[in-house]
């Protein structure tokens, strides 16, 4: 699909196709439909960023809280969204050893206890060792730093999900 | 569940339980968790209203676009959320005659074409005849009027969904 086709979509199809570019937040996709036509994939991405950035702090925290834990209960119970399942699997999160699993569970809990939202990372831009390292390091950050960092990761995830859905003439520039 | 129990929920359980009080907008529920503890069910409802009211116009339109059509494709394909299915069924939307079905489909399309979001109504506060009448009448409103009216209906739906989940000491005052 190219950007001209995207611009021609009725909102229902637009939300069906792009509704999960920000995990479990179809309202964001549904809101930016108002801003069409988009000159490019970059412009669609920019509209999503603009919406996210204008949210109050609680709204940004809300976005993070819509994300599953890495290697957490949604993965184990099979209730991850398709996108999250694929991303966590690529990073090896579905195949942790027992020791690693316990460590990740403990660090996830520590992180959530400390910040009131989950550890969010763009798993496709990382690998298992790096994810585990960042999880343990980011637990020690200040809350404001982690909120901003989590939202940055949400935007990276969004970019890759968009790239998987729309052909860009200049993919390196997205 | 009473409000003390609600206030004690970790965000994951809070979002699991209340994530669909605004249809397909768990971000709203996840955001207001930040505002706990809630003095009452009214206070929880007020926090949700405050979040919705602070959204830009595109965000309010986004909320409406997350709603299914009445007696539309999600009902026919079995993909309504549990809450919407029950609400539409109570109002008789699952049992329209062929003539009524065609009329509703035509009016839904006309409404969406005109406004760029779907007709939203609190079906549980209405009945089939009244819903069909309002659908045909509201098609003729101005867009700004319908956006405000749709959001009012979203809040009524939210109130009834909340009342179904939390015991209130003063249910008449919710």
Automatic annotation (TrEMBL), chains A, B:
Its main location: other. Its EC number is 4.1.1.97. Pathway: Purine metabolism; urate degradation; (S)-allantoin from urate: step 3/3. It is an enzyme of class 4 (lyase). Keywords: Decarboxylase, Lyase, Peroxisome, Purine metabolism. It is found in: Peroxisome. SUPFAM superfamilies: UraD-Like. InterPro entries: OHCU_decarboxylase, OHCU_decarboxylase-1, OHCU_decarboxylase_sf. One of its GO terms (cellular component) is peroxisome. Catalyzes the stereoselective decarboxylation of 2-oxo-4-hydroxy-4-carboxy-5-ureidoimidazoline (OHCU) to (S)-allantoin. This is 2-oxo-4-hydroxy-4-carboxy-5-ureidoimidazoline decarboxylase.
